[in-house]
Amino acid sequence: MYESQRLSRQIDFLIEIDKAKRILRQSLIADGSRRENDAEHSWHLALMAAVLCEYAGEPVDLLRVIKMLLVHDLVEIDAGDTFAYDDAGYETKLARERAAAERIFGLLPPDQAGEYRALWEEFEACETPEARFAAALDRLQPILLNHRTRGATWKKHGVTKERVLERNQGIAKGSAALWRLARALIEDAAARGYLDEDSRP
Amino acid sequence: MYESQRLSRQIDFLIEIDKAKRILRQSLIADGSRRENDAEHSWHLALMAAVLCEYAGEPVDLLRVIKMLLVHDLVEIDAGDTFAYDDAGYETKLARERAAAERIFGLLPPDQAGEYRALWEEFEACETPEARFAAALDRLQPILLNHRTRGATWKKHGVTKERVLERNQGIAKGSAALWRLARALIEDAAARGYLDEDSRP
Q: Per-residue pLDDT tens for A50-95?
């Protein structure tokens, strides 16, 4: 059915990644009706990158940022979603995700497998302007959704304002303006009672 | 909460488009478990554009193709999804979608409203290399999903092989190679009984 092995591998990959539509995240979609999946989350981030790229802390190649965001969660097809406030899950996350990247990007022809695997590694390492901006959006989006859904996920997991501020401070490395926005959203959420203040002494 | 009216409008837009996650298409996702929504469809197309851009019939600016695909279905937030084989729906589609584009892209600051509105108009007019390639992917993806789900949507709506070939021949304008792939998938689907042959005399 395929006129080349290359095209066959590309289509195999594009069918395999359809599974991202079934990986549920902790965040609810903005109307609060259900949990968001990885595919729609990645679409939302890609459009956020396009609309908000003027706020990147350093000049970024927008196409690279978007490609990175489109594939950044594909490893969860095998490794599952790890909630941002699940410390135990984070300990084994990297090993599980490395194996997943090997298998999933490995479906592509070698040159593209290398390209997308490298983009995923770059996102994870978070050491380039593109990766820092992509990571900032990946942190900001759940804050927007949580604010919109009156802190649904924060409340469910008993996460405090201090924890949210601490867990998301990396946004500042990708964009000072978006970190100011994130802090304003978090403070407003706390003021409205969507998010508890830390009760530890 | 926002440090500028510009940022406030951008975030309003980015929250509004979350509604695309609730617009259901006719296609099922690849495992056949449920209908696909516009947000995950657009994500899938954006990644298809990145992986398959070597097959574009003319040189394309990949970032423009991807931006176009990320926003091409936003008008359905107001106008709803029109099934590709619904001729009556197609008669009113353009007017409904124009009004939707006016409202939804109009949430953005004027410069970006103009940019994304123009990208959507360009996609609809299908007269540039980028729009032709984007449209080809938008046609190919449901064929891939229908083939994968044993013709679920085709069978449900009683669409014949001849109708599918006719309705999708525009793929050839965006990519000769992807049109050959689409035809091979359609012939294979018919041979497997996923799609009926035309019974008209």
A: 999 999 999 999 999 999 999 999 999 999 887 777 777 777 888 8
- What are the chain A neighbours of B104 within 8 Å (beta carbons)? none
- The first and second tokens of residue B173, run together, are 């304008």
CA pair distance B62, A174, nearest whole angstrom: 24
Within a 10 A sphere around the Cβ of A17, how many other Cβ atoms?
25
pLDDT, one tens digit per residue, over A88-144 is 777 788 889 999 999 999 999 999 999 999 999 999 999 999 999 999 999 999 999
For the stretch B4-15, pLDDT in tens is 999 999 999 999
Length of chain A, in residues: 201
Identify the CA nearest to A82 among candidates A73, A72, A93.
A93
Return the residue of B nearest to A71 by Cα: B47
DSSP assignment of A83-146: -TT-HHHHHHHHHHHHHHHHHHHTTS-HHHHHHHHHHHHHHHHT-SHHHHHHHHHHHHHHHHHH
- The reported pLDDT for the residue numbered B87 is 79
pLDDT tens profile B150-167:
999 999 999 999 999 999
Tell me the CA distances in angstroms from B26 to B29, B34, B75, B86, B146, one per residue in order. Answer: 10, 10, 16, 11, 10
How far apart are alpha carbons A134 and A72 in whole angstroms?
Answer: 9
Contact B43 A48 (CB under 8 A): no
Name the amino acid, one letter, at A120.
W
A:134-163 residues touching chain B, CB 8 A cutoff: 144-145, 148
CA B180 to chain A, closest CA, distance in angstroms equals: 8
Q: Which of the residues B18, B25, B43 would you substitute to probe the A interface, choosing the one with the greatest number of A C-beta atoms within 10 Å?
A: B43
Which residues lie closer than 8 Å to A53 by C-beta, 6 or more apart? A60, A62, A65, A133
Tokens standing for residue B9: 């409008």
CA neighbor of A85 nearest in space, from A31, A151, A166: A166
Structure tokens belonging to residue A126:
């978070």
Tell me which residue of B36, B14, B19, B121 sits closest to B72, measured CA to CA: B121
Q: C-alpha B2: how far from its chain's center? A: 33
Instruction: Provide the CA A136 distance to its chain's centre, in angstroms.
Output: 9
Quote the CA–CA distance of B123 and B136 in Å, as a whole number: 11
Is A25 part of the contact surface with chain B (CB cutoff 8 Å)?
no
Q: Read off the tokens for A70.
A: 């489109």
